[in-house]
Amino acid sequence: MARYLTPEWVQSFDAALAALDLSEAIAAAGAGSLAAADGAFSVVQVVTGAPAGIGAEGERGETRLVLTVAEGRARIALDPGGVQAGTATIVLGYADALAMARGELDPAEALAAGRVRVRGDLAALVAGQDVLAAAAARLGDRLGGLTDTDTADPESPAAPGS
Q1: Does pLDDT of 21 surpass 90?
Q2: Which residues of 40-69 are buried (b: 16+ CB within 10 A; e: fewer)?
Q3: SS3 143
Q4: Distances (CA, A) of 10 to 36, 42, 55, 110, 144
């Protein structure tokens, strides 16, 4: 499997999401948010400090990922130009994004600890997390999971297996 947040990883994840009808999960997730109540919203995730080779540019730095939810479907794409606005935007470091993706860091705890910054409708962010959780439950291992090899930062002394 491709490394976390590389264009190949994003394409694989998007293809898996596109195949799912998430209408029920989206309706349930949107119930707590005026911005997401109609089932259409987007969440921008800005990941800072990504290792070289990650994101659309392939250079170490900032990676922008956009989750778009509409018409019962969820899609995910890189936004290297930063042109897509979101109903909510979350900004966090690569290590925290990776830990959340692996289920090792609770988003609410990270927010409370100041490890992430949020702009926009917080309820839309929660709705996005709920939709992704429902998708993950339905996909199971079809995304291949996030292994230490797929997600390690070879430039970081804290990389798994170091």
Answers
A1: no
A2: ebbbbbbbebbbebbbbeeebebbbbbbbb
A3: helix
A4: 23, 16, 9, 23, 13
Q: Measured between alpha carbons, how far is 47 from 154 in angstroms, rounded to an integer? A: 17
From the list 48, 88, 96, 38, the residue with the least C-alpha distance to 66 is 88
Q: What fold characterizes domain 7-140?
A: Nonspecific Lipid-transfer Protein; Chain A (3.30.1050)
Domain ranges of the chain: 7-140
Q: What is the pLDDT of residues 64-115, one digit of tens each?
A: 999 998 888 889 999 988 888 898 999 999 999 988 888 889 888 998 999 9
The packing angle between helices 122-139 and 7-18, to 10°, is 80
β partners of residue 41: 69
